[in-house]
């Protein structure tokens, strides 16, 4: 085994020596930094770089030389970190890791496919709505805590006014969520945004109930189970309906005289689309939305404690790999459907544990870096850690754990324990977006709404920190930290 490691080291030393030779020799190189796939080399004299010779080196996959005194040598995942370690052992200075560049490199390696593209569309539609989602969810959460901590809140004028104001903020978003969604969907698909907003708003108006009664689709005993009702299909119906509406709008604009376009195109578009939208799309997506919520609710809020815990563990452990592959956009649609139909989100608290796992893993690396005197890595972690604790995990992920490789995995394994706990305790969120400590006031929903739900969330964070720290400390060697 030792012989294999020595041979492996020699191969990387040979590769690095050849790269340095054609970069103008070791004396010409001022610093070398590695990202996920590349060596980023800064030099004194740009003319000394032999680009063609670099391209011919065995092990070099590509060259990017688009600015003076700087060149990127593509060697591939895994190889880049080992070559970077060899450079550091040779005493070549390394610039600080740039997590944003690492993130861009990871995203660049992802290949689009129909599923990822479809999920990405949902993300593009809903991401601009996140400030409203967060504001509404935070206000709802704070209001719940006030009402639980002060049962006589309605008798206190200041608290009564405050809770009413908080409720107005939440209602202003949630009541018209389909309208906001329709507006954004029309923007994304290249149509007239206000028409998308109108279609979305029509979805939630009481006139839909009158139409349902007129055609015999209304359920007097259980209105929520009616084939057609106000809000039926929710945001999924709106996105699909707006997609069709935009295509109809574009077709009409191509065939109608320009002088009549402004007046008749909007009217014709809405009139043509409303009948199939109300009588076909809303009932169909109503069934789909109800089915999705039922499945998620049955699993996340199952009476079986062990099933809930297993779901929470798997969700938290796999969430960040999903993010790194760009597969997390579809969850936005799920959040929206749950929030619209149930008023809270069951899966989100467990997924928040993924970021906490990164914090625990990086803390373990930080202390090991102190032992091996890797001050550069400690500096990177020290700058990114406060943001990670608050819930902004990208600097830790793309600056430390993902480039190192194995800590990204141990962080997920540790986070799973926190996810299992919060899911077992049935903590639920009033919104999505904030995580870490910033997410505390949104974790006030579910069967244990209010203070207990927040307490379970905080305990889950602590479990994720501790377990990821212990597992990473056990698995990651000082040698790995030294060469990071």
Distinctive features:
3 domains; 20 helices; 4-stranded antiparallel β-sheet; globular; mainly alpha; disordered N terminus; Gyrase A, domain 2; 484 residues
Characterization of this structure:
By secondary structure, the chain is mainly alpha-helical. It has three domains: 2-95, Gyrase A, domain 2 (2-Layer Sandwich); 115-302, no CATH class; 307-483, no CATH class. The protein is 69% helix and 5% strand. It has helices at 2-22, 51-56, 79-89, 99-109, 114-126, 130-149, 157-174, 177-189, 193-203, 207-214, 234-255, 258-300, 305-324, 329-342, 348-371, 375-390, 394-404, 406-424, 451-475, 478-483; strands spanning 29-34, 38-43, 62-67, 70-74. It has a four-stranded antiparallel beta sheet. β1 (29-34) and β2 (38-43) form a beta hairpin. α13 (305-324) crosses α15.
Shape: globular
How do the strands line up in the largest sheet?
Answer: 1-2-4-3
Determine the number of helices (DSSP H or I, runs of at least 4 residues): 20
Helical content stands at 55-70%
As for the number of domains, it is 3
Oligomer designation = single chain
Give the SSE order as H and E letters: HEEHEEHHHHHHHHHHHHHHHHHH
User: What is the overall pLDDT average?
Assistant: 84
Distance between the termini: 22 Å
**Rg over C-alpha atoms, rounded to the nearest angstrom:** 27 Å
The secondary-structure class comes to mainly alpha
Strand content: under 5%
Low-pLDDT ranges: 1-7
Major sheet attributes: 4 strands, antiparallel
Number of strands: 4
